[in-house]
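Build the 3D complex.
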Amino acid sequence: MPRSLWLIVGLSLSLLVGCAQQPAKDDSLYQDLGQRAGIQKIVEGMLLYIAQDDRIYKYFAKVDIVRVRDKLVERFCVEAGGPCTYTGDSLEEVHKGMKLSRSDFNALVEDLIAAMNEQHIPVTTQNRFIARLAPQRGEVIEK
Ligand code: HEM
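Done.
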């Protein structure tokens, strides 16, 4: 085999090995939520529902809502498998001192569902997304 061909075979093999070591990330949920623009609409919708939600509005009354919106979009994007980086603080740190309960958590999830319904996100997609958020409840409540 000519030397140049060896080089090509070698390079192709190393590419294959590289791919095998780093499997392509599954971003189907990110796509189904409408990518970053779709996620931003969902977050903004959720915050609007929260603003009308007497159960949990009190927690948000004095926050920097633009920052919370931006960090939530990043966070949800990462959770959905999208190409984003979360630059906010840890969930434990952020929610420390709020003493959130399970009911508070459920109320926020209800507002999130309302926002996803408004964006016509199919229920199967909604359930996939909520299944990724649910395990984080422990980092958020009773802190
Ligand atoms: C899995 C569920 C949750 C996630 C992933 C989440 C995520 C976040 C993120 C990313 C931020 C912004 C962080 C930053 O500024 O660096 C934030 C802030 C906040 N979250 Fe949550 N959160 C969750 C549940 C809740 C619940 C249930 C409540 C209350 C009912 C809540 C109330 C707040 C408030 C009030 C802030 C603003 C804090 C501040 O800026 O002082 N969160 N959350």
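Residues 56, 59-60, 63-64, 67-68, 71-72, 75, 88-89, 91, 94-95, 100, 104-105, 108, 133, 136, 140 surround protoporphyrin IX containing FE (CB under 6 Å).
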